[in-house]
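Running this now, will post back.
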Amino acid sequence: MGVSSSELNELPVALELPVVGQAPRQRADAARNHERVLCAAARLFAELGAENVSMDAIAAAAGVGKGTLFRRFGDRAGLAGAVLGEHEIAFQDQIIRGPTPLGPGAPPLERLKAFGTAYLEFLDSRSELKFAAEAGVPAARYGRGPFRFYRTHVVMLVREAAPEMDAEFLADCLLAPLMADFFLYQRKVRERSLPELVDAYRSLVERLLTGR
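Update: finished.
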């Protein structure tokens, strides 16, 4: 049934997200700076687009030194990931304990379709920010907490739905259309609507796992 409560104990790494709250307790001034940076970055990303916002502009808007940003977040991709962090946590919470079929209780095939549907909807309002978070070092996104969590979830559901298949490979196939660059290509270049992408994804799940 996806990520059960007993299985969560086996996934400590997958649940690590690049957000405040997972780190050791900060000094009050450091926590305030952190919050100012995230608020400033979120506002500038929303107003100008993540690709048009520099670390200098975020530092100036937050009233902190640029060195503080690089020490805490590494680069713009890390900062974009931190801005997305609370949204990712809320989405993951729906997978773990939310209503069915995204949450527990539905057959694995239906949960896979619900996951893809919900994540495409999640991306539709955050795709450029997600793209910025996935940029930087090539393939780095595959090692980050959110991807590892989603991959673990999809692998478990594929194993339950089709135990005779290669769950690891199929999970990667099912996650590929949910990457921000692919989503932006479909929406902006191919000019496909969100309902079209949802229908196509649900059909992909059905065909890959049942052959129908």
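The chain has eleven helices and no strands. More later if anyone needs it.
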